[in-house]
Amino acid sequence: DETAIPDENGSMLKVGWDDVALTKYIQKIWSKQRNDSVEPFLLSKTCGVNINNRSLISAKSLITDEIIDAYLGIICGLSNKFFYVPCSVISMIFHPRHQNEVADVLNENKGKVLLAIVNRREIHWILLVIDQQNKSLLIIDPMGENKTTCQLIFKLWTNYLTHRGYDAEGWKIDTIHHSKQQDSVSCGVYCMKFAEAVVLKTSLHLPKDNVLEMRCNIMKTIINNQDEDTNNLCRRCYRHEPPNSKVKSIKWVQCDGCAISWYHAVCLKLKQVRESTFVLCDVCKMSE
């Protein structure tokens, strides 16, 4: 069974890079003073989302849409009762001028509970748990639920329902007791861990003193839950065929350290590939 399931420690890691090596890599990337000159490296394609080393770099402080989409995709894969709405879609649903441009997310996922993490004013992430059967909109704000914000979110949701021809009568706002973030930048981390807790039916009370560890574990989970076709992609150009390539035969080289990463020889600027050619991927280089 290829479905990732939590182990006794609550981890959802599949087999991938050695956990020690991957942890070292993440820590070294995050400890570098300047990361703007790093060579592009595809860490994983997870739930159809490309996650590269720049995504990882940003995850030390800021959580991007692709990280949220990949992680929610993994989480919802643990249960057939849940479905996640991508960040790009949910942002349009909760924008009054774009609601008519969005697909009907309810009709596509009848009966399922929708998970979505919406960005408010481009500075703050909030988790929404949308239960169609019970007509419940559960709002989980890492900063604590604000009545005005909750009412605005609820109004935008019922407007969307009306635009799509659904009966908005009977829908209600729900809140639940949960941990609150202790800084100004960890809302995305909290939202993802809250979403995980909702699906796995575990506590919404998170440790206050290990946010960086949670960030690291989130990235390891994403990286080690790669889509099967990731093995058919070059880790440098993210493609199966080299860009602008006219060659009939594509030469591939494999990382000699982990045997996970593959590259086009041309993307590594290797004119010839011999038995003695030695290649290490970014993870193996930095975890030595």
From TrEMBL:
It comes from the Eukaryota. GO terms for biological process: proteolysis. Residues 47-198 form the Ubiquitin-like protease family profile domain. Keywords: Hydrolase, Protease. The keyword Zinc does not apply. Coiled coil: none annotated. It holds the Pfam family Peptidase_C48. Belongs to the peptidase C48 family. This is Ubiquitin-like protease family profile domain-containing protein.
